[in-house]
Design a protein that fits this description.
Helix 15 packs antiparallel against helix 16 and helix 24 crosses helix 25. It is built from 31 helices and 24 strands. The longest helix is centred in the first third of the chain and has 38 residues. Strands 1, 2, 3, 4, 5, 6, 7, 8 and 11 form a 9-stranded antiparallel beta sheet that branches. The chain is an alpha+beta fold.
């Protein structure tokens, strides 16, 4: 025997004993654990609790540093599919910009779409702080402004509902491919269109995007492939079972037995039952079984959370139902559905135990714990990866366009807006942002009615205005709503129509110097008014301009001397130009009296040039003055030495001045030109007042075609310069094309509010062209009466065009109507304008030449030779 054999045998025995002992110990341990199973359960539970606590702590720490970006698109934002896809790739990449120790639930980028009444839909992106640099560079270009998002703090609402959406249906099928036109976000925006911030309404959608780990994707694929194979085997077994049943039924049928008896074939007579071959399960194709999960490219997991709140019971639940219906638009064989269970009329979901706490934790910390089925490709999220585009119809909220409040001096009424819920509200723009307005549309479309409503609201709020209406129709329409005691003290009526058996007319001396005007500004204003109304310029009528300018310079000097002498009632008027040019005695007295007040050039002209002019050179200057003198009303209005009309004083006193020139004939156009040029001079004279002390004033020009026919350059200059002096012009016209080019260009360029009613396509096209033909001229042309499309400036941004219904005075200001006080208002308006009977003013005008002559005789210094005259010695 080998001497080593006993040793080997002993070693083997020892090893076997150890193995046996180990197995016995394991069996004993298993028996003990089986008997004390609760110990194992406690250890496993404690380990799971500790692990979850550590994971939650790390996730919360990782979520402390997050960035927020707010995307604000402009009205021309129209992205392409490639740009949206690139944005999705950026979001997926940015979700991993976390420390290595951060748990998976914290590695996510969140898209927040929020509606709280401040805007139709705020679009924010929140995610890891490390992804800010990547996400700040938007592939959408300059059409989307990326701003740093500020923290959002919500006040507690009384009623809140929550919901989590998961993908239901075939798990491998994609969502419906929603086209970009119209905007895929339109159903969501429509769902929150009637949201009211004053009731505490709030709706927020949060879409978390997370790059899934490879192992999770492989596990999901294995699960789907296994399910597909099991399904195929079940189908094969079911088919075999049905096949055997069909074969048995055939063999046992009466027809089969009769066939065997009648058959001559002995083989068939002795044949047994037919052999049935069961179908073989088909091979499962991975691409068909996995669907959208076949490839790894741009495959992400998503979590969709929704919260709605309100202070009114039922509104939050209704809002959630609207959003649920909006998400149905994205559904096909796979669709978004609310997670939870329905038990009769009750639904158990994110609002109830045990899921509510987890929902709130994910909502507050921005964590992503997507359901197992929520796998999507970036192409399926195209509609949610970008802000609203140009193809999205946004509602007009109270925060976008404020609601008009009667008596608020900061608001200007614009019209009646009907919201998506059918409710109407009067909307307004901010007065400080409404610099110039232009309204276009056919006659009777509601332009003047809208301007009157705005002017009446502004007047009741304490604002000053001037309403220039050549046809006077606006005055009787407005008087019932202006007949209030506080307003009667501020209203003045300048009516040159001479209506009634005993008309009363106000007065105005364009040459009057009693208010301290600058002489050269007065001369320039009157000369330019004549030139505008009569079509004079330096090429066609240089001599007429020179004669008129020189004559006005002398008369203004005379008036300045009369005012300094304390005798303003002895001032000359515009009708004394004829006496100055045609009456040698009057001319000699005037020139002698003011020789020291005239500049050297003017004196030289009267000494050298005037004596050489033929008599017929004065006809072009005197002819329009003769027409003014032939009309009793204009003769009385312009023939008074001290006029009551002073537009500069009216501005500073917040007066409401209604001016009705009386028509659109040649004489009326000259009056209008004089008034317009004087308004321009008066507004520019506010240079002597600090900007913050200039009182806002709003001229309203009805029938711009008539007004600009008299003073085109003056009206154009108003739309260019008045903003600097806090004077805002509102113009109305039927056709832009009939306005002079200078006026038309200035109107459209500087208009902060642009409005149009229905009309012909050719008349509306210039306005819709400013809006990019959205809406089209054809659509605007078919609007109902009193409907307007308006674009406005609100908060420094262009809003609209928005379709509004024009305000009707009888509806909007029904509570302010005082028709019984209209006679008192008209009496007060004429008194404030210091209107006197027409006959009295005509007689006073006829005597004014004698008064001026007497004054000149008294003021003429002894021994002074008038320019152009020879000194005589006695």
């Amino acid at each position: 025997m080998d001497p080593a054999a006993p040793y080997v045998t002993g070693g083997e025995s020892a090893a076997a004993g150890q193995v046996f002992g180990l197995l016995s110990g394991l069996v004993d341990a298993v028996n003990w654990l089986y008997a004390h199973w609760y110990v194992l359960a406690l250890v496993v539970g404690a380990g799971w609790v500790i692990g979850q606590s550590v994971v939650r702590s790390l996730a919360a720490k990782a979520s402390e540093e997050r960035m927020a970006l707010e995307l604000v698109p402009n009205r021309h934002f129209e992205p392409r599919l490639e740009e949206i896809f690139r944005r999705g790739v950026q979001l997926a990449r940015a979700s991993t910009a976390m420390p290595w120790w951060a748990p998976r639930r914290a590695k996510t980028v969140q898209i927040r779409m929020r509606a709280d009444g401040s805007s139709p839909l705020r679009y924010r992106i929140e995610g890891p702080a490390g992804g800010q640099r990547l996400l700040s560079i938007s592939p959408f270009g300059p059409d989307v402004t990326v701003n740093k998002g500020l923290p959002i703090t919500d006040k507690p609402r009384e009623h809140t509902v929550r919901a989590e959406f998961i993908l239901r249906g075939k798990p491998t099928a994609p969502l419906r491919e929603v086209p970009l036109i119209p905007d895929p976000l339109q159903p969501l925006i429509d769902a929150v269109a009637d949201l009211r911030g004053d009731l505490g309404d709030l709706a927020e959608i949060r879409l978390d995007i997370q790059r899934a780990p490879k192992w999770a994707l492989k596990a999901r694929r294995m699960q789907l492939l296994g399910a597909a194979r099991r399904s195929e085997r079940r189908e094969a077994q079911r088919a075999a079972r049905w096949l055997r049943q069909d074969a048995s039924s055939i063999d046992d049928s009466l027809s089969w037995h009769l066939q065997e008896l009648l058959s001559d074939n002995p083989r068939s007579a002795g044949a047994g039952r037919r052999l049935v071959m069961p179908p073989v399960p088909r091979r499962v194709e991975p691409a068909q079984a996995l669907g959208k999960l076949t490839d790894d490219d741009q495959l992400v997991r998503v979590q969709l959370l929704v919260m709605c709140a309100s202070n009114i019971e039922g509104r939050a639940q209704a809002r959630l139902a609207q959003l649920q219906a909006a998400f149905d638009v994205f559904g096909a064989r796979s669709r978004w559905a609310m997670r939870g269970w329905r038990l009769g009329p009750w639904r158990v979901g994110a609002d109830h135990w045990p899921t509510r706490r987890g929902f709130e934790r994910r909502w507050d910390l921005g964590h992503c714990r997507p359901p197992r089925a929520n796998w999507v490709r970036l192409e399926e999220l195209t509609g949610l990866l970008k802000p609203p585009t140009v193809h999205c119809r946004l509602p007009v909220l109270a925060s976008d366009l404020p609601t008009f409040e009667f008596g608020d001096p900061g608001l200007l009424l614009q019209g009646i807006y009907q919201g998506p819920d059918g409710q109407e509200r009067p909307v307004a723009t901010y007065a400080e942002e409404t610099l110039f307005e232009v309204a276009v549309g056919k006659a009777g479309g509601g332009k003047t009615e809208r301007a009157l409503a705005q002017a009446i609201g502004w007047a009741h709020a304490g604002g000053g205005l001037m309403f220039l209406d050549p046809h006077r129709d606006s005055w009787p329409r407005a008087t019932p709503f202006l007949a209030h005691e506080p307003l009667m003290e501020r209203i003045a009526l300048i009516d040159l129509n001479g209506l009634g058996p005993a008309p009363r007319v106000s007065s105005w001396n364009p040459l009057g110097m009693q208010h301290g005007q600058r002489p050269h500004e007065v001369v320039e204003a009157i000369t330019d008014a004549y030139a505008s109304a009569l079509g004079w310029d330096d090429l066609t009528a240089p001599r007429a301009l020179t004669i008129l300018t020189s004559a006005l310079a002398v008369l203004v000097a005379v008036n300045e001397a009369a005012c300094r002498a304390g005798r303003p009632e002895d001032q000359a008027t515009i009708f004394h130009v004829r006496a100055l040019l045609a009456d040698a005695d009057f001319r000699r007295a005037a020139l002698t009296s003011v020789a020291g007040r005239l500049d050297a050039e003017t004196r030289s002209w009267w000494e050298v040039v005037f004596p050489t002019l033929p008599p017929d050179a004065f006809g072009v200057v005197l002819n329009p003055i003769a027409r003014l003198s032939a009309n009793p009303v204009t003769r009385a209005f312009l023939g008074q030495p001290v006029g009551a009309y002073n537009i500069r004083a009216a501005m500073d006193a917040r007066m409401i001045v209604w001016v009705c020139p009386g028509g659109n004939g040649p004489t009326d156009r000259l009056i209008t030109a004089l008034l317009a040029r004087d308004l321009l001079r008066a507004v520019r004279s506010r240079r002597d007042t600090p900007e913050d002390q200039r009182v806002p004033f709003r001229p309203y020009f009805d029938e711009l075609i008539t007004l600009t026919g008299a003073a085109p350059e003056t009206i154009a200059t108003m739309f260019e310069d008045f903003r600097k002096y806090r004077c805002q012009v509102h113009g109305m016209t039927q056709l832009l094309a009939r306005l002079p080019a200078a006026v038309r260009l200035s109107l459209v360029q500087n208009a902060s509010t642009l409005a149009t009613t229905a009309g012909s396509i050719s008349a509306i096209a210039p306005i819709t062209a400013e809006w990019g033909d959205n809406p089209s001229p054809e659509r605007v042309a078919t609007m109902d009466r009193f409907e307007h499309y308006i674009s406005m400036n609100v908060h420094g941004q262009r809003l609209g065009p928005v379709q509004l219904r024009g305000p009707h005075l009888d509806a909007v200001f029904a509570a302010q109507a005082r028709p019984q006080h209209v006679p008192a208002l008209e009496h007060a308006a004429l008194n404030n304008a210091r209107a006197l009977p027409l006959g009295e003013l005509t007689a006073r005008s006829a005597q004014q030449l004698k008064r001026v002559t007497d004054f000149l005789a008294e003021q003429a210094p002894t021994g002074v030779t008038a320019p152009g005259q020879t000194k005589r010695y006695t």
